[in-house]
Design goal:
Largest sheet: 6 strands, mixed
Shape: globular
Helix content: 10-25%
Number of helices: 2
Strand content: 25-35%
Structural class: alpha+beta
Number of domains: 1
Strand order of the largest sheet: 2-3-4-6-7-11
Radius of gyration: 16 Å
Length: 154
Amino acid sequence: MSVHCTVAKQALTNAGFLEVKSPLFGEALGSEYRRVLAPPWSITAWLDTGDALDHVDIHLQLGEQSVGNIHRVTTDAAVADLPAIVATLSALAGTDTLKCPKRKVRWIATKLPKPRDGWQPFLSCTGMRVGRSREGKRIACDGTSTALQPIVTH
């Protein structure tokens, strides 16, 4: 399964996304597309470099922070789901569903494991840090959420 870069770019452009040029990320790494919602919310899609992409991840952003779950588009045919994905994410922006259930102060975001980690993606408070205790990571909150599926595959 793969998504052709030209198909994804055209669908994102048609759905109101604009390519964001960032001095932090060179073109060699890929392209970021963003659709602005009511400030400070937006929807972001990341396209790796190459003609055939393994997937395109689409998610909400609060300013520059990723929030909520990830919608992963894995085929050219699934690109047709983009309007529904945009509608779903737009409806979620700023709602209590995205608040950390433990303290209701911070937001939830998808934590993705590295291949060697051996755990599944999950939604946790943005104050949570996943790491070994000897690394001295300070944990502001250990709240997790099951309100949303961490990764929705299309």
